[in-house]
Amino acid sequence: xxxxxxxxxxxxxxxxxxxxxxxxxxxxxxxxxxxxxxxxxxxxxxxxxxxxxxxxxxxxxxxxxxxxxxxxxxxxxxxxxxxxxxxxxxxxxxxxxxxxxxxxxxxxxxxxxxxxxxxxxxxxxxxxxxxxxxxxxxxxxxxxxxxxxxxxxxxxxxxxxxxxxxxxxxxxx
Length: 173
What we know:
Elements: H1 2-28, E1 38-45, E2 56-59, E3 62-73, E4 78-86, E5 96-101, E6 108-113, E7 127-129, E8 131-133, H2 138-146
Parallel strand pairs: 1-7, 2-6, 5-8
Antiparallel strand pairs: 1-4, 2-3, 3-4, 5-6
């Protein structure tokens, strides 16, 4: 009898901890809503792999807001990302937005790089960031380096003329 009471108490503790984690996940994973003094801005990307509702928006590595929604535009074949930013971040019109990652296996986030314009993006919800760079597909990047096309921008060189080369150097000119 004593062992079954101990097992029952351990089981209840496990269920309690699981319930706490479930409550925390549901509480944090709900609607990504603006809180306090925030405004909404949109940006169009060609690729937003890894970005979803609730993803961080950072300026100089500091969290400045969150992604409120990610939608597809079937007319322009782009992803429209709506972000909620703190009002203290008055962004210039030439701000650049890019999808970036924390390290090689880290999560994705939207990085904003303010420009030098004297005019700011409107904070009434109608603002849009015009300069964007989508996420880089790492598999394609690694494949380009493996195939030799990722030479880092080195100068072009003449093909070497080997004795076994069926195409003489004159054919390349």
